[in-house]
Design goal:
Blueprint (H helix, E strand, L loop, with lengths): L2 E7 L3 E8 L6 E4 L3 H14 L2 E8 L6 H19 L8 E8 L2 E8 L5 E5 L7 E2 L2 E2 L2 H13 L2 E8 L3 H20 L17
Parallel strand pairs: 3-4, 7-10
Antiparallel strand pairs: 1-2, 2-4, 5-6, 6-10, 8-9
Helix pairs in contact: 1-4, 2-3
Length: 196
């Protein structure tokens, strides 16, 4: 089982996070931000990754520190779980429809972190106690700490809940594809450079 565990302690957040890339989609999430808990549960379920996240953050200020720091910890844990990256597919792309919304997520476990994020227009400022601007902050923190090139585009849609939910589901599916081991190349690094 490819697993990663990160404990991150700052003056703003205390995070304990564990991920198994070869799980069944079981999760136990408590961030203090209900909608974000829901999104991480969906990410794990659709990615078929087991994920445990506990976060005690300064949500009395707002959710920014908690969401961004969880992105950092998740990225670090995924990078740890991938190890030498031998045999992985490396690339993953997924289109996910949710009612009137269509989202595309495409990623490369390249070792070259980058984020392109297109929310497809304005969103409602808040969904429950979740600030929708934090979606981009989470994705950037995750991509840069995992060493992933990540492209996220809302192709179209009007409902902010559907847009954000489709992003997290599609991210789970795309990452699942990218981390899967190719049995025909299980001992190979998927790069002509010989390293990722």
């Amino acid at each position: 089982m490819r697993t990663g565990k990160v404990i991150r302690e700052t003056k703003e957040t205390s995070i304990d996070l564990t991920i198994s890339l070869d799980g069944r989609g079981v999760s136990d999430i408590d961030t203090g931000i209900g909608f974000f808990d829901h999104m991480l549960n969906l990410f794990a379920a659709h990615g078929r990754m087991d994920l445990v996240v506990g976060c005690n953050g300064d949500i009395n200020v707002d959710g920014h520190h908690s969401v961004e720091d969880i992105g950092i910890a998740l990225g670090e844990a995924v990078k740890q779980a991938l190890g030498d990256k031998k045999g992985i597919n490396r690339y993953g792309t997924f289109y996910l429809p949710m009612d009137e919304t269509l989202v595309m997520v495409s990623l490369d476990i390249s070792g070259r972190p980058f984020l392109v994020y297109d929310a497809g227009g304005p969103m409602a400022p808040m969904i429950g106690n979740y600030d929708t601007e934090l979606t981009e902050e989470f994705l950037r923190a995750f991509a840069f700490n995992a060493g992933i090139t990540l492209h996220v585009k809302v192709m179209y849609g009007t409902n902010s809940h559907h847009k954000v939910e489709a992003i997290f589901k599609a991210l789970g599916h795309a990452l699942r594809t990218a981390v899967k081991i190719d049995p025909e190349a299980a001992d190979e690094i998927p790069s002509t450079k010989g390293m990722l």
